[in-house]
Give the backbone structure.
Amino acid sequence: MKRSRAVSLGILGAAAFGLAACQQEEQTDAAAFPDEASCVAAAAQSGWFTREDCAATFAEAQALHAETAPRYESRELCEEEHGVGNCGGDAAAGSGGGGSIFMPLLAGYLIGQALGGGRAMAQPVVPKAGGGYATPTGGTQLSRLNSTGKMGTAAFAKAPTTAGQPPMTRAAVQSRGGFGGAAATRSVGG
Amino acid sequence: MDRITLPERPEWRAKAAELGFTFADMHGEPYWDETSAYAFTLEEIEGQIEDPCTELHGMCREAVAAVLADEALMERMGLPRLRWEFIRDSWEAGEPEVYGRFDLAYDGKGPAKLLEYNADTPTSLYESASFQWLWYEDQLAARVLPEGSDQFNRIHEALVERFAEIFPPDTDLHFAAIAGAPEDYATVETMAWAAREAGMGAHYTDLEKIGISDQGQFTDAEDRVIGTLFKLYPWEDLFADEFSAHLAGAQCRFIEPAWKALVSNKAILPVLWQMFPGHPNLLPAFFADDTKGLADAAHLMLAGHVTKPIFSREGASVTITAQGKVLERATNRDYDRHPMIVQGYQPLPVMGGFRPVIGAWMVGEACVGLGVREDRALITQDLSRFKPHFIEG
């Protein structure tokens, strides 16, 4: 016999890859707003968050932004990542000789329903160069604010603290994405 | 060799959808087509395809050694000099190959002729190893194909054996493809299934999400260090990428190994012809600027000649010329900037209005299966159809 006795038949997606299969993350209701007032305006129609949730999550998002927003060693580098005019100096770094650390401005925030009840979850979003918004790690991206939908709960995981840490240099910013330049959007196989 | 009309399996589209074979139709045209199939005799399979391809692979290995030993030939390969040492090291360390696909012109009469060797990033692995196998088993069960028939398709089992042979049990392997290309992803996942069956840990990352650690090692989208990387992305493109300077120091084993950059390269075709002139499975081939070689070989190319860039995919930038006239010119010219080679024109047979190309799969150093693609055009491009095959009883 010149054929296999048995083969794997499915290419459904993650099944062949061990770790990917464990990372089936749960989805939750989420909404994105540019500010607290927009959230409050939408709270009346929402079944799962209140005006009070809007205030509490906005305050939490502001605090998380100050703590976890990406920090850069130059305005130029920050603007390359987040768009011209979207970056400011790091107020928290002021005492240590300041002025040399830049971070994207808070563009809005995400509010998410906690699975199993409890307080609504919060996450800040910052602008991206070329349009759209992203969470501090860049792991979740949004095309627009004032939107609602289902989102993986990982979007609300707290990003690593950047306040008080050395800012990213150009080399650090470029430490991912060094492969794939020739491919753009085409299939590369033969 | 024959092209035989057969009833389609009534439920095959539903089955394809259920299995995740989402590109069974592409660009609004059928890609998987089982309204007919190619039939071969066992002698054709073993004597004309299997044994010659195993031999051709051995010849390619000899050619790699010859190219690495000859700076002038190395120049011809169009690869950056800064990476030559990295390529040489992969060969001298004996880094093992996993897979490749010979594309052959074969009409069931004369010897099969090597058109090119996709030795680095061949795709259509899922269709060949898995969906085609399922077609055969279904048609056998439905008595559309008789007892005693067979299919040349040990691809999956051979891949499992190959992974088990070259890696210790439980080795973590990363598999990377360009994001958003389902055909590429299918090939990568098929490969990963085989690796898992061989007892390896298989992890996926989009190629673009690969990063570099402080220690200069490659990391996946979740910052795990990559010890072994199967990359469905051509070496010549990796060498042009920003991370290429990190390749040598990354302590990463690659599949395919870097020396495959010399084999998947059409500049290997004139080297093979120089080393094995007149071999029955080779077409005469020359570098395009080798005017003396081409003039001396004019009597070997009376049927015409084909101009191909040393790097190209899916027939791009290929031109076929006969009697001084262009017979066909690929519309996709993306690879025109590369150096060219000239190969004797071997017309593909015409069967049922289509021109089949035999894809002979190599795993390790042995030929283990085949898949047929056919196209109405003279140059097999990305609108070609994949056809199942069987061996007559």
Remarks:
- Chain B has two domains: 2-264+352-391, 284-344.
- The first helix of chain B runs from residue 12 to 19.
- Residues 284-344 of chain B form one domain.
- The CA atoms of residues 154 and 368 of chain B lie 5 Å apart.
